């Protein structure tokens, strides 16, 4: 599978070499909007798995080219407390209806008479589409009204955290390639951008990082799991245990982690697919990884609990529908396939499979579900399933931990096998996770 991953990278590198960036999809009409900047993390994961520095060295100039696309086309200025700094936003050059959603985009502006305003709306729709969060209340002036979409005025926490992490990973790759000067240059950019990032996005009284709106010069203090992305990319100078625990507790008080099906995309109920009650694998995965990377034992345990919840919920829905889904309804007694947005929920699904497999691998030493099938048959809600499993685990943990493989249930079937994704090894799961937008 390493060769398969390498071939996928070669395809994406080809796109960057010919178009300057990774388009939103492999079609001509996607050439005016990008994917989120995940090519560098993809190559970083490939190198970590293979040690193939020869290939990495060959494509490093292309990785720089893609990074420069974001600096040249998606960077903007923001003035804060007398200092002007540069950060990133999603900003598509397209100002016409999206070809793949032409009808929807035309209907959205049917009551708008001004052509300039129509084009602004279409541009902001395309900009939100390149974010992967299409669509979410994050991008709206009126949080419940898609026609007020204003993506180009939103400075997203996650995009800037991704760019921050990319500088660090690119420094690492250049160092491994023996290009010391380049490595030092990108490391210095990483250190400088961490300061800028904290200045623009951190809100002390709200205990966290929040999207910043250029139009009204204020932060959007609603909960979105994207606000935990800086923990995932480690875009901070220092973060003591008490501070990061306060961040988590603040989000916990808002109700972000109370749902049995996983972490929702927001706590706002709209008709958009990236809002409540939908939860998505990339978001849940990044929340888990971000908390796991902290120095707080408490939050590391919370990361495991969220991972266990997400795996169990996905498995539960799989047993009921025989499918993995792109998104899930995390609310109510039982999780279910998600809904909302412009199209019927999709089965498959690359980033769901990738996230699940990565979580199973990460927690293979402690994530096990004794008597799972029996418990599922006897329980009425996902909460009851989790409670019964906790009781069984607390009694049986010492004996269970003596098993060579801890992820098997009593019937002898591994959850990995039941998901039918065993063939997706760790590295390719990361590729699907990064590029399933």
Automatic annotation (TrEMBL):
GO terms for molecular function: alpha,alpha-trehalase activity. It holds the Pfam family Trehalase. The keyword Secreted does not apply. It comes from Panagrolaimus superbus. It catalyses: alpha,alpha-trehalose + H2O = alpha-D-glucose + beta-D-glucose. One of its GO terms (biological process) is trehalose catabolic process. InterPro entries: 6-hairpin_glycosidase_sf, 6hp_glycosidase-like_sf, Glyco_hydro_37, Glyco_hydro_37_CS. It comes from the Eukaryota. This is Trehalase. Keywords: Glycosidase, Hydrolase. Belongs to the glycosyl hydrolase 37 family. PROSITE patterns: TREHALASE_2. Its EC number is 3.2.1.28. The keyword Glycoprotein does not apply.
